[in-house]
Amino acid sequence: MIGHHLTDAFDGVSLESGAIATMRDGTRLIADIYRPTDGTGPWPVLLMRQPYGRDIASTVVYAHPTWWAREGFLVIIQDVRGRGDSEGTFYTFRNEIDDGADTVAWAAALPGSNGRVGMYGFSYQASTQLLAALARPPALKALAPHMTAFDLYSGWFYRDGILQLSTTIGWASQMLREDARRTEADSAAALDTNWLNAGRLSSAMPLTDAPPLANEDVPSYGIDWIRHPTKDAYWEEFDLLARVAELAVPMFHLSGWYDFYLRGSVDGFRKMAATHPGQVLLAGPWQHIPWGEHVGGQDLGPAAAPAIDAMMAAWFHHWLDHEVPVGAAPLPPVRYFELGSNAWKEATAWPPPASQPREWFLCSGKRANSRYGDGALSPDGPAGPEDMFTYDPEVPVVAPGGNRGGNVAFGPHDLAPQQEGNNLLVYTSSPLDTPLVIAGDPRCVLHVCSSASHTHFVVRLSRVLPTGVAQFLCLGAASVIGADTPTGKEISIQLDPIAVQMAPGETVRIDVASSAYPLLIRSPNHATDPATVKAPGDFGHALQVVYHNDAQPSRLVLPVLTD
């Protein structure tokens, strides 16, 4: 794929373009091989298997393969089955176990290989690593699965049973347009339109039948994700959290506080660390892409600049250079970026063992609507009977960063403008007297009642600066059934992991709503699957009540680092 007239630029590297690996069923997959020319070898192998065109090689976040080759690796970038120049038909995730195992064995036997293979990559390229490891190929010695989910249902496509709408339809449009081009399908032009404006499908009804995702001339995987809203047999195939015992490989996990797949990545690290040695986690302040110090309009300082390539090179050399690794691993068990101080911290586990739960109780005089109301957070206990708001799916609270009509970009956005509406509840602490360090997984326990039998609740945590800016930190959501009773229901909403140091004078804030659109699909306020709602007129309104009294103590539980 790379012109021979450009190879002169590859100082110290030789390129074999279009190398063929034949899978067990005869399908031929195509790869580019980058070999060091300095030194005698043999070299440890770094393999990336990806669906976006092997010449791209995830260089949006990693160094070019020539850099890795100069660092002493034999580097292989392969088009997965049915993508790029590889033969076969592509269906997300489905063929990556066998194809991954066959490719690892092929790579280990290549001229110049020392027989030990590591795999690297983020997002889908991380999933190909985990799926290959399930087959336990003997030559596979280490992985670097970055920004992915071990359980695709709960960590990638759904949040507590709620479809992650914008990311799902955006990625489906991106992937299917390549399939359509490959087969010259009639849907190719429509998929290109979707890719340029993925948000147009956010309001498609019913989403389960929305063209072009549901068109018969393109693969079905995009619409299959939407048509399987519960964790049925379709998703069990891709639940690696349930199969960590089979993944006995050292892993360099990487996640971002503002990555959509943060929870899926951290959950994977925690379960792997409890089962297998050699697990490390780097948790940065980044979005899915790009990785850097500028996130959500904020400058997080020079420490937020990524140094991932150098870390990975040292880590892979440790595991791949020798049959038995020499010396200590070059990374601590957990290294994480603390917002606020904008500095890196280290810990032996996540959350840090010194992190302890601290409760902040919801209080109000029955008027917590908007940030102009009287909602408060108090460590002393709940106060006031209840608050209420009306959830109208046609007038949803938008996701952090807004982007109601398109893709949602997470980041430390200012939520204060969104907190001006009466269609959400806002609870704010008194200004802090001393620094507060949060590191772990916040949780919100709410006592709720609803006029709807089925509805959603969404909680967002923010750090309010003395200027009034409410920096978004993390969120959680719950699909709630059965709160339409006189006694209501207690629900526990798990928020995403976060680390932040709050200074004296700052305040802690949560807002409670029933939507974060278009990040999450809108509940219609009845038992109908939201993706099957046929028209806006099928939406119902819901009166949502949150209680916070001695018998129903709604509260925010923060993981606070203690000395």
TrEMBL record:
NCBIfam families: CocE_NonD (TIGR00976). The keyword Hydrolase applies. GO terms for molecular function: dipeptidyl-peptidase activity. The lineage of its organism: Bacteria, Pseudomonadati, Verrucomicrobiota, Opitutia, Opitutales. Pfam families: Peptidase_S15, PepX_C. Residues 313-557 form the Xaa-Pro dipeptidyl-peptidase C-terminal domain. The keyword Transferase does not apply. Keywords: Hydrolase. PANTHER family: COCE_NOND FAMILY, PUTATIVE (AFU_ORTHOLOGUE AFUA_7G00600)-RELATED, PEPTIDASE S9 PROLYL OLIGOPEPTIDASE. This is CocE/NonD family hydrolase. InterPro entries: AB_hydrolase_fold (IPR029058), CocE/Ser_esterase (IPR005674), Galactose-bd-like_sf (IPR008979), Xaa-Pro-like_dom (IPR000383), Xaa-Pro_dipept_C (IPR013736), Xaa-Pro_dipeptidyl-ppase/CocE (IPR050585). SUPFAM superfamilies: alpha/beta-Hydrolases, Galactose-binding domain-like.
